[in-house]
Write a structure and sequence with these properties.
heterotrimer, A alpha/beta (435), B mainly alpha (293), C mainly alpha (287), A: 435 residues, alpha/beta, D-Maltodextrin-Binding Protein, domain 2, 45% helix, 14% strand, B: mainly alpha, MetI-like fold, ABC_transporter_permease (chain B), transmembrane (chain B), transmembrane helix (chain B), membrane (chain B)
């Protein structure tokens, strides 16, 4: 569960790494602006203001999206930024205590949970749900009703070192597993002290991307039991482990890799599976790694690229909001194609609105793999326990990678552990209380 | 009811009522919660709450991270209590020497870390323990010890946090021991010296019996304190790396407030409660054997 | 004889030096915290670690404490309100805590009432219960009472001062019964006896206790973290922890926030250390 926090704060950590190495950061930006900025004594809360909670970068930068909204509607907005590592409990305790803000950001997989506990209101304005990628819509549904509006999409792709790949005789990474692994072997032979891939053992994203590429579903019996002992997932786990067994990826956890981007720039590894937030880091630290030295491609599948999971953030309105109309207006503003494009320039988030993708701003070659992947998104099981399931499965996968278990023991343990986690859900589904 | 009795109840009832509300009632409720499956589903709808008997406890027994958190906590206590008490006692003995000047000044300065906020000083120590730029590794470099990845290496993380905790709390027991040492009979000490007893013999046979009860009480409180470590990993390591600093309380917090499994979390709280109870009892027994109580 | 004296003197010098070095090591982190907080951005990220700022800069404090307008949007760490919140919460818990525990401690020491001994035993026994056991259900209770996300929700649990009651009781036992009995014979009411005779005698203990309570409340972390959802209500440790988790690498800024959090209580402690340490020493040592 701890790893839970660690994975949940995936982005936060990468941010730490980035800041530690002295790149340009929000603070840098702020410090520069601070000189010209106004220093006023702090005021108490504005009773007219709408309250918005968002995590990490989204929280830090959302205030920039607000002046336009306040100008148009006359409604001020107060943004509270939550650290990723404390967001889940802050939101839950706030709900339990009746202290949720009017509008909140919810990441992948939390929407169903907060809808279940009655924290967030259903989306009534159909226009908010138009112009979206179909797979993202499924993630905000609870009992067939949408409870949040997708805000940004972050499918996993691979970032690769163009120069190192060229040395090994590749223009781009092969798109199937066998070819990808063969490329890894060649890279390793050329630079035996470095690695081909970076897949941190306490983060579930790489393994789950491999699994979703196979098209298998990880749960069965209406999402009440684990389905890990199936040939497709076994193949994914075996492939995952083989990359470590052959020394193509270092068997380390995130705390042992404080600044992945610096390591990427130094050639410690060649291929870095990651999300769109890395684009911003690469742009900011272009002095360390020039733009022509890296490229982006879709993740390889068993026989060519397949679906990977993708919504990173959605916006929801609290049931307890006293001004639902104003709150929905804010959601409408923040999820408009124009605002999403502005956020893309600010922090690199990829718009969830399809129409935004026809804008010239999104035609950069580095974004093409993202655009292609957007059309091929997988759908995660929309259940309350999903976040935990991923974390616990990855913990077991780590033990498999470290040869503390065989693959088959690992798969059996995953099924057993997941069945344990889903016991309550199973009972409720059998009693007909839950879909 | 006499006048005195009426007054007594007037004086005591308010605080007793609050103790009842915020301590006794919740503790009883915790016991009740620990045999239910209170989770998000119950938060959504009370009718989803079910009775599970010892289910939470057997479930915990099958959860590897729970055992790991117990092990980590035990390690914290096993290493931390002797370190903290030892340093407190050594400092108190040092300050007790007649030749030491400006005692009040030293006492205040050595005590100062104790009154600071754990969160703020944990932030400071995270920088002191930084692998590349930290003062600790710089100082170790002088004596030829290579850089230690204090908060990143699963084997170094517990010692790292312990250095911080010991620094922060040793002043308290130092003062407590100072008070106890002042009660060591001077004539007995003088007699022992005249008998030719060495420094160690005098400590063992005169000082130790005199401060025994204080030492025992300090040990009991320290064990209880070390079993309840939470803020340090919360601020410094998030329970990592590789879950090496996940303590029982951190586990409980995650289970309860992050995942909202209050049933399981209450079961964890109870295990902790029982552990503290047993340890207190054992320590009291040991104390009685040595006639310190 | 001369040899012995000089040996004694060397011993004394060594002991004093040892104490001084130990104190230096112990206070170094706090001193370093202060000097780094005045360093210009990024200066502490160097090897060897610098101890003295190349130039004394207030930029970290400015960034931490001031609200700034950037591109028409306000940015604020909300530390200044957190200082106010912490002061208010700590002052209220101290005041109410004293009001509740000092009379109770006195009653347990000097007033005879049925069940006193049994209650006392229960209080001592309940010292062993870790507060965390009660925390989860307490949250549910406070939810029902509507105390979540309020100052009252933070303050109320800190008022269950079992330790304080026992502390006051211990101190009150030293007051001779004759004084109280004499006043009773004169027909003074119990409340009046407490106010005019007992309370003045308990003043030093009360100051000590107030200091304990204030520091305890100021530094409290876990419960405010759980109960407070709204950033406007955050106490300092909660606010600092929130910044620390996101801005881990901003050394100088974090040091400034640590200084803001620790300095008020450190100064208070230094000003009143006589009471604090005196209270712990239990009057066994003077000075």
């Amino acid at each position: 569960m701890l790893a839970g926090a660690e994975i949940a704060c995936h982005k936060a950590r990468m941010k730490c790494g980035r800041e530690r190495s002295g790149g340009v950061t929000r603070r840098g930006v702020l410090a520069g602006a601070a000189a010209t900025g106004l220093a006023a004594c702090t005021t108490r809360r504005d009773p007219n203001a709408l309250r918005l909670w968002a995590m990490s970068y989204e929280g830090d930068y959302s205030p920039h999206l607000m002046p336009a909204f306040t100008r148009a509607t006359g409604i001020p907005v107060e943004v509270q930024s939550l650290p990723w590592t404390a967001a889940h409990e802050k939101l839950l305790t706030a709900h339990a205590g009746g202290a949720l803000p009017d509008v909140m950001m919810l990441p992948n997989g939390w929407v169903g949970e907060f809808a279940l506990v009655g924290a967030i209101a259903p989306v009534t304005d159909g226009a908010l749900l138009a112009d979206l990628f179909p797979a993202t819509l499924a993630t905000v549904e609870h009992r067939g009703v949408s409870h949040a509006v997708p805000w940004s999409v972050a499918p996993q792709v691979q970032f690769y070192r163009r120069d190192l790949l060229a040395d090994a005789g590749y223009d781009a990474p092969p798109e199937d597993w066998a070819g990808w692994r063969e490329m890894g072997r060649r890279l390793k032979r050329r630079r035996p002290d470095d690695y081909a891939f970076l897949m941190l053992l306490n983060w579930w994203d790489a393994l789950f991307t491999f699994a979703s590429q196979t098209g298998t579903s990880l749960l069965r019996e209406r999402d009440t039991r684990g389905n890990f002992r199936n040939p497709a997932f076994r193949e994914a786990l075996a492939f995952y482990r083989s990359l470590f067994d052959e020394g193509l990826a270092p068997p380390i956890v995130s705390t042992e890799m404080q600044d992945p981007l610096a390591a990427f720039a130094q050639g410690y590894f060649t291929i870095y599976p990651s999300g769109p937030s890395l684009l911003l880091d690469l742009h900011r630290r272009r002095s360390e790694i020039a733009a022509d030295r890296w490229g982006v491609a879709r993740m390889p599948g068993p026989r060519g690229p397949g679906p990977v999971s993708g919504v990173s953030a959605a916006l929801a309105v609290s049931r307890t909001s006293t001004r639902p109309d104003a709150a929905w207006a804010l959601v409408r503003h923040m999820t408009s194609a124009a605002t999403e494009l502005r956020f893309q320039t600010l922090i690199g988030n990829l718009p969830a609105r399809r129409s935004a993708w026809s804008d010239p701003q999104l035609t950069a070659p580095a974004l093409a793999p993202f655009a292609a992947q957007m059309l091929d998104l997988s759908v995660d099981p929309n259940i309350v326990e999903w976040e935990r399931v991923r974390i616990e499965v990855q913990l077991i996968a780590e033990r498999v990678v470290r040869h503390l278990m065989t693959i088959d023991e690992g798969l059996a343990t995953m099924d057993r552990r997941v069945d344990q986690l889903l016991a309550k859900r199973r009972a409720l589904v059998q009693a007909g209380k839950l879909a | 009811m006499t006048r005195q009795e009426r007054a007594a109840w007037m004086f005591t009832a308010p605080v007793l009522a609050i103790i009842l509300l915020v301590l006794v009632l919740p503790t009883v409720l915790a016991l009740a919660l620990s045999v239910t499956d209170y989770s998000l589903y119950a938060l959504a709808d009370w009718s989803n709450l079910g009775f599970v008997g010892f289910g939470n406890f057997t479930d915990l027994a099958r959860t590897p991270l729970f055992w790991r958190s117990l092990g980590n906590t035990a390690l914290f206590a096993l290493l931390g209590v002797p370190a903290a008490i030892g340093l407190s006692l050594a400092t108190a003995l040092l300050l007790d020497a007649k030749t030491v000047r400006w005692k009040p000044l030293w006492r205040v300065l050595l005590f100062a870390p104790y009154v600071t906020s754990v969160v703020a000083t944990a932030v400071v120590w995270r920088f002191l323990l930084n692998t590349r730029f930290g003062l600790v590794n710089y100082a170790l470099g002088w004596v030829g010890i290579g850089p230690v990845d204090w908060l990143g290496d699963p084997h170094a993380s517990i010692p790292a946090i312990l250095i911080f905790v010991t620094w922060k709390i040793f002043g308290y027991n130092m003062i407590v021991f100072t008070a106890a040492l002042s009660a060591v009979p001077g004539d007995l000490m003088e007699a022992a010296r005249l008998d030719g007893a060495g420094r160690w013999a005098r400590f063992r046979h005169v000082t130790l019996p005199a401060i025994g009860p204080t030492l025992l009480l300090a040990a009991v409180m320290s064990v209880a304190g070390f079993l309840q470590i939470f803020a340090e990993p919360y601020v410094m390591t998030l329970g990592g790396p590789a879950q090496s600093t996940t303590t029982v309380l951190y586990f409980m917090y995650q289970e309860g407030f992050t995942w909202w499994n209050l049933g399981r979390a209450s079961a964890v709280a109870f295990v902790l409660f029982v552990l503290i109870l047993i340890l207190t009892f054992v320590q009291a027994r040991i104390g009685r054997r040595y006639e310190w109580l | 004889m001369a040899v012995k004296v000089s040996r004694l003197r060397i011993g004394a010098i060594l002991t004093n030096a040892l104490v001084a070095v130990l104190t230096l090591v112990v206070t170094l982190p706090l001193a370093w915290m202060v000097t780094v907080s005045f360093m210009p951005r990024g200066e502490s990220n160097a090897f060897p670690p610098p101890f003295w700022p190349s130039r004394w800069s207030l930029e970290n404090y400015h960034e931490l404490l001031a609200r700034r307008l950037i591109d028409g949007a306000w940015f604020d760490y909300r530390i200044v309100p957190a200082i106010g919140n912490s002061l208010f919460v700590a002052a209220m818990s101290t005041l109410l805590g004293l009001l509740l525990t000092v009379p109770a401690g006195y009653a347990f020491a000097k007033l005879r009432f049925r069940g006193r001994e049994r209650l006392l035993k229960l209080l001592i026994a309940s010292l062993v219960v870790p507060g965390q056991v009660a925390m989860l259900p307490l949250f549910l209770i406070f939810k029902q009472l509507g105390l979540i996300n309020s100052y009252a929700g933070v303050i109320l649990p800190s008022l269950a001062g079992i330790f304080a009651v026992l502390f006051v009781r211990q101190a009150t036992l030293a007051i001779p019964d004759e004084m109280i009995d004499a006043a009773r014979l004169d027909g003074a009411s119990e409340a009046r006896i407490f106010r005019t005779i007992v309370l003045p005698l308990l003043t030093p203990v009360t100051v000590t206790l107030a200091l304990f309570m204030f520091l305890g409340s100021w530094n409290d972390f876990l419960w405010p973290l759980i109960v407070l959802a709204d950033q406007h209500l955050y106490t300092l440790p909660v606010a600092v922890a929130a910044i620390a988790r996101e801005h881990a690498a901003d050394g100088e800024l974090m040091m400034a926030s640590a200084v803001v959090t620790t300095m008020p209580v450190l100064l208070l402690f230094l000003a009143l250390q006589r009471y604090y340490i005196g209270g712990l020493l239990g009057g066994s040592i003077k000075g």
